[in-house]
Design a protein that fits this description.
Elements lengths: L1 E6 L3 H12 L4 E5 L10 E5 L2 E4 L13 H4 L9 E3 L4 E3 L10 E3 L3 H12 L1 H25 L5 H8 L15 H9 L2 H8 L3 H11 L12 H5 L10 E3 L5 H12 L3 E4 L3 E7 L2 E6 L4 E9 L3 H10 L5 H10 L7 E8 L20 E4 L3 H12 L8 E5 L14 E8 L11 H19 L7 E7 L1 H8 L36 E3 L13 H15 L19
Parallel strand pairs: 1-2, 1-12, 2-9, 6-14, 12-18
Antiparallel strand pairs: 3-4, 5-8, 6-7, 10-11, 11-12, 13-16, 13-17, 14-15, 15-16
Length: 544
């Protein structure tokens, strides 16, 4: 009998497991894959190359304090600074330099002035000044449960800058700012379309196009990159998950790989979890980091939820058309951008390379995906972290990841992805060649992840890397549904949800995992789980 069984080893599930373990609970983690971490994992795709399977840059988790609270540095996790954190090259034939987003604000504004003019450089300085405190409030809201009390605490007393139309603590002005579109926000501040497109593409990494309501904060998050830039986990994105696994194992807890869960059901007042290996484990609580629809199916398989209730949930939770595809590459060189400044070290290869110069490209790509069609002109994000971390590739070689948005999971013409994935990858590479001529000639190996492949390998249903749509109606107290937004399932005491399906959504933050663990601990203190062994004990600290 365990205090908690954790289903899945995605980073949020592991965060939950670590916080529960630190509170003195006995924990076991069950993972169907032979690699821990889910979409935060790294494997050897090509000989000698450690290639990420999902995420690459860690933006949000470094702003949550979770890494420090769990002491993950003692288990091998270290971060390399992505500085510059982003680069937007000039389009072919444009004599102006590319836009370099440094952690240093002055250096960024100097680059914007050279590429877009002094007016937009001054506007960017105002944008960062306005949105740094606003984005900190958003991160505070993401760090706790999406309850009225928690959100009021995060946003209470917030004054909106007058540049954005605010009048002190005017609630209407606050609502307008946070419910506005990313495109609208960009149009309020800037004139140059290149700068707008770069920031819109950065914001769109959350999934929705910046034309949707509620996307302004996704653009505004760029301001926080000047306080703490994205981090690259040394050894690959999976180093975050590997550190948490090491922490759990050092504390005597089990992480069982290659043992998927087939059913979750009741056994009296406790929970019974069946695995594909034929085992049945029991626990007083269960927390699932699997996709919410996968979790509901497991509960139905264990007779904990009626099939008709699961079907009703399924009809109301929107996956979306699929977000995109990844092209993982190994080769002999990194992209050479003629519009990049000549510097020593990693230079612009240290961060995100935003290969979009017009927001029309983003809008048509998203519209095509809604229609089940490939983007007319792929929108590409390039990441080349072997320039920052030479341990990723054999000496004399490099690697790159190209992320292209938006590509539909189901194609309207009925074509199977297997028949077109190579051609789509060629189109993605062609976009990089527009900005860095000759790059495709340096490629020696490639691994392609279409939306169906993301589903097959990582359990990302519909190919959605955010689990379910990150639209306004499925965020905050509505994620994934209002009745599931507190990490609990009505009527199932002791059963909890975490992961990208829950608040605050996708991306590498760990916030959902921490909130789920805190919810479990609070429920125990409140007597909802009186049978939990020892209630909540004094947190155990390593090294004592």
């Amino acid at each position: 009998m365990y205090d908690a069984i954790v289903v899945g080893s995605g980073h949020n599930a592991l965060v939950s497991a670590c916080y529960l373990a630190d509170a003195g609970w006995s924990v076991t983690v069950l993972e169907r894959d032979t690699v821990p971490g889910g979409a935060v994992s790294t494997v050897e795709r090509f000989p000698g190359h450690r290639i990420d399977r999902g995420s690459s840059a860690h933006l949000m988790v470094r702003h949550t304090g979770i890494v420090e609270e769990l002491g993950l540095d003692r288990h091998g996790l270290s971060y390399l600074e992505c500085d510059p954190w982003a680069f937007a090259p000039a389009p072919p034939g444009d004599p102006r330099p590319g836009i370099v987003f440094h952690t240093d604000l002055d250096a960024t504004c100097d680059s914007i002035a050279a590429a877009c003019g002094s007016k937009d450089a001054a506007a960017y300085r105002r944008f960062v000044a306005d949105w740094t405190p606003l984005s900190r409030r958003v991160m505070a809201a993401f760090g706790g449960p999406p309850t009225g009390t928690s959100l009021a605490r995060a946003f209470g007393g917030l004054g909106v800058p007058r540049l954005l139309g605010g009048q002190g603590n005017d609630a209407a002005a606050i609502a307008r700012v946070f419910l506005g579109t990313g495109d609208g926000l960009l149009d309020e501040y800037f004139d140059d379309e290149r700068l707008k497109a770069a920031l819109a593409w950065f914001g769109a990494q959350s999934g929705p196009p910046m034309s949707e309501p509620g996307t302004a904060p996704m653009v505004g998050f760029a301001a926080l990159m000047h306080t703490l830039p994205p981090g690259r986990a040394r050894g690959g994105s999976g180093a975050l998950a590997e550190a948490m696994v090491a922490k759990l194992q050092a504390g005597g807890h089990q992480v069982s790989l290659g043992e998927g869960v087939t059913a979750i059901g009741r056994r009296g007042d406790d929970w019974a979890v069946r695995t594909a290996a034929g085992r049945t484990l029991t626990a007083r609580t269960v927390v699932s980091g699997a996709h919410v629809l996968t979790t509901l199916d497991l509960l139905a398989a264990g007779d904990a939820l009626p099939a008709e209730q699961v079907a009703a949930y399924r009809r109301r939770i929107r996956l979306g058309p699929g977000i995109g595809m990844a092209v993982r590459l190994a080769g002999t060189a990194l992209p050479e951008y003629p519009s990049a400044p000549a510097v020593d070290g990693a230079g612009v290869h240290a961060g995100l390379q935003l290969l979009v110069t017009d927001r029309g490209q983003l809008r048509t790509a998203h519209g095509a995906a809604l229609a089940g069609q490939a983007p007319p002109e792929p929108a590409v994000l390039a990441m080349t972290f072997s320039a920052l971390d030479p341990t990723l590739s054999p000496e004399g070689t490099e690697q790159a990841t190209l992320w292209s948005q938006w590509h539909p999971y189901r194609r309207a013409d009925g074509t199977d992805w297997a028949a077109v994935v190579e051609a789509e990858a060629d189109r993605v590479l062609a976009q990089v060649d527009r900005y860095a001529p000759g790059f495709s000639d340096t490629i020696t190996d490639r691994y392609l992840q279409s939306p169906p492949e993301l589903e097959r390998e990582l359990g990302l249903l519909g190919g959605n890397i955010m689990h379910v749509e990150m639209s306004l109606d499925q965020m905050l107290p509505f994620r994934p549904l209002p009745e599931l937004a507190d990490h609990r399932i009505p009527g199932l005491t002791g059963m909890y949800l975490t992961g990208a399906s829950t608040h605050p959504g996708g991306g590498v933050s760990g916030a959902s995992g921490r909130t789920a663990a805190r919810t479990m601990l609070a429920d125990t203190r409140g007597g909802l789980l009186r049978r939990l062994r020892g209630a909540v004990r004094t947190p155990r600290r390593e090294g004592r």
